[in-house]
Design goal:
single chain, two-stranded antiparallel ribbon, three-stranded antiparallel beta sheet, alpha+beta, 5 strands
Amino acid sequence: MVSSPKRFKQHSQAVCTELDGEVALFQSNTCTYLVLNKTGSAIWSALKSQPTLLEICKHLQGEYEVTPDECKTSVEAWLEAALKKKVIAVVAD
């Protein structure tokens, strides 16, 4: 489970480009290729400021109609999957 105080960032080995309004990612170490939907693209963009899970949720709740609990659950799942695919990383203290 992703704990709230952790900060997240885009992985240095993840290359991104925009295709038709969506973000496409390529992780050069694992050769993983992903195309993010609009919400995933918004999370990816928010990672530039190295936010916590709760900061990402606050940002998304300003853009989408979603309850805090639904947002936290969805974003947490997205972060966990992205960590496994090594397209994001936890910011070292």
